[in-house]
Give the backbone structure.
Amino acid sequence: MNYYALIYHLTDDYLERRGTYRAEHLQLAKDAEAQGDLVLGGAYSDPADTALLVWRVEDSSVIETFVNSDPYVKNGLIARWEIRPWTVVIGTAYEK
């Protein structure tokens, strides 16, 4: 299994608009967590301009499926996003 960071770059009006889509977005994330794919997720708060979701999956296709299903992405709350492979070497969640 590999670690990946999904980085969402949020729109300027993200906080004002997210309420409509928040429950569906969070359910999608909870489902990914229940599958064992999503490790951590959340938005930076000061400023609220970026969100980080940490994944542990075989390859990035699982993350791409998530992104393409995410109502935040589909409804324009995400200005751009990127998936970055992440080489983890230490931490309580790290498994060799």
